[in-house]
Amino acid sequence: MGTPFTAGAVKRAAQSVLDARAAHPQSNLAQLYGSLTMPADLRAAHTALDRTVDALYGLRTAATTEAGRLAALLSLYHQQTGVLLSVTASPPVRRGQTSKKRDYLSLVTGRKSPGSSSG
Q: Over the range 76-109, which residues count as b (16 or more CB within 10 Å of their CB) and which as e?
């Protein structure tokens, strides 16, 4: 059997992300996190962190997208605390388009948060 997934395992995995970032002092955040420019060691460290968090919280493979993971973690937070958070992200706006917010709260609860835009 492998090492049990604990908060300590998450801390170690998070430190690996920080160490991988530190290994590239010449790179700015845009270079470190660009889809085409992300260093392989940093991508691997983030993947390991995601898998550690998924295992610790018992997230299924359906929650392995960034949006799915966020929705699942917010749902767990709500279950533990009774606090319901609304997290929205605005996609890039192209010429001739309007900005639409993606309401992750709706992924968790199936309903919109107060003040969220419709659409």
A: eeeeeeeeeebbeeeeeeeeeeeeeeebbbebbb
Residue 89: strand pairing partners: 102
Angle of the 40-57 helix axis to the 66-81 helix axis, nearest 10: 40
**Token couple for 115:** 């003040």
- Per-residue pLDDT of 66-76, as tens digits, reads 888 888 888 88
Q: In terms of Cα–Cα distance, which of 92, 36, 102, 34 is closest to 70?
A: 102
Plot region of 113 (φ>0 → left; ψ -120 to 50 → alpha; else → beta): beta
Strands of 40-101, DSSP E: 88-89
Is 10:53 a contact under the CB 8 Å cutoff? Answer: yes
What percentage of the chain exceeds 70 in pLDDT? 61
Tell me the pTM: 0.62
Please list the residues that pair with 103 across neighbouring strands: 88
